[in-house]
């Protein structure tokens, strides 16, 4: 029993020692001393949410008024933190800093983050990350990997669509058929990654995970609204489509219906574990099943693209 009780205490001591050592090295060796220290303190081994003052120091260092070299260095430092750690708390708190920066900081940060991914292996690729120091840490590691996939998809969605669904005005309501068929699948893939963040087991009750999940839950509202507006627009055009477009549109519609059911379940889980407390989640209504049948009948008889005359 003594050994079992000593091990977590020893890990916390070693984690604190690592943080102290890293801060000491930054004070001596770094040209970006203040930024490096803020990153270490915002992403330390303490199993509690980061102190806001350290996150604010990081955000000041990567604000629009700062040189792009400072932004690039910050991304490099965060990537180094992610790649070297085997501790779930450090990894998760680093991802939260990145997530919050995408939401709260000038778009320069997002652009530099995408450029960093092009020139190197993607910093958000955490497929092999694991902290096997305890059963709880194992659970938390799984959630960290899923959360990293969501953030990676968030960047990919921006890269494809050329706008941020969370921070920019909605566009899917006014797109033409070709643009809708291109825009809706990336948005649905983003929602797919977000729905996968529904926590399981010990992860459901971890306060740092709940903090990250609350941001995702808020973003789900705009993601789903963009998909819903686009789907309504798509349905308005559906019965005039050529067969190839109608087949793609039907697949998008089916996936939208399935995802709306899953999002309702996601919100119920969030309410159960008190994530997004005080926020108004969407009330999602399902279309009648008969409408889907009508769409399927149209696809069977829809006109095919006429062959061009030679």
Automatic annotation (TrEMBL):
**InterPro entries, from UniProt?**
ANTH_dom, ANTH_dom_sf, ANTH_N_plant, AP180-like, ENTH, ENTH_VHS
- List locations, semicolon-separated: Cytoplasmic vesicle, Clathrin-coated vesicle; Golgi apparatus; Membrane, Clathrin-coated pit
Q: Quote the CDD domains the UniProt record gives.
A: ANTH_N
Please report the stretch or stretches of sequence annotated as the ENTH domain.
27-165
Database matches in Gene3D superfamilies: 1.25.40.90, ANTH domain
Q: Name one GO biological process term.
A: clathrin-dependent endocytosis
Keywords assigned by UniProt, alphabetized:
Coated pit, Cytoplasmic vesicle, Endocytosis, Golgi apparatus, Membrane
| Protein name in UniProt | ENTH domain-containing protein
Q: Membrane among the record's keywords? A: yes
Example of a GO cellular component annotation carried by this entry = clathrin-coated pit
GO function terms (MF aspect): 1-phosphatidylinositol binding; clathrin heavy chain binding; phosphatidylinositol-4,5-bisphosphate binding; SNARE binding
């Amino acid at each position: 029993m003594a050994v079992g009780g000593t091990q977590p205490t020893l890990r916390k001591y070693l984690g604190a020692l690592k943080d102290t050592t890293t801060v000491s090295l930054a004070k001596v060796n770094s040209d970006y001393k203040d930024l490096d220290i803020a990153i270490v303190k915002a992403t330390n081994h303490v199993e509690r949410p980061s102190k806001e003052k350290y996150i604010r120091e990081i955000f000041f260092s990567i604000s629009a008024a700062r040189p792009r070299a400072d932004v690039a260095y910050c991304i490099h430092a965060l990537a180094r933190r992610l790649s070297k750690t085997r501790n779930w708390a450090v990894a998760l708190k680093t991802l939260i800093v990145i997530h919050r920066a995408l939401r709260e900081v000038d778009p320069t940060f997002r652009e530099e983050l995408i450029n960093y991914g092009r020139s190197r292996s993607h910093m958000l690729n955490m497929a092999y990350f694991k902290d096997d120091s305890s059963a709880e840490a194992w659970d938390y590691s799984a959630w960290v990997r899923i959360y990293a996939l969501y953030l990676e998809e968030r960047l990919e969605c921006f890269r494809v669509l050329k706008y941020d669904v969370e921070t920019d005005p909605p566009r899917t309501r006014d797109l033409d058929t070709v643009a809708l068929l291109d825009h809706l699948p990336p948005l649905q893939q983003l929602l797919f990654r977000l729905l996968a963040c529904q926590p399981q087991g010990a992860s459901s009750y971890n306060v740092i995970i709940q903090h990250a999940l609350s941001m995702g839950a808020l973003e789900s509202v705009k993601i789903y609204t963009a998909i819903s507006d686009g789907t309504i627009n798509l349905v308005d055009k559906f019965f005039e489509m050529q067969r190839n477009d109608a087949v793609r549109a039907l697949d998008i519609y089916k996936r939208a219906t399935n995802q709306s059911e899953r999002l309702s379940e996601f919100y119920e889980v969030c309410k159960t574990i008190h994530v997004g407390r005080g926020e108004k989640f969407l009330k999602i209504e399902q279309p009648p099943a008969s409408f889907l049948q009508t769409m399927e009948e149209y696809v069977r008889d829809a006109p095919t693209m006429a062959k061009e005359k030679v």
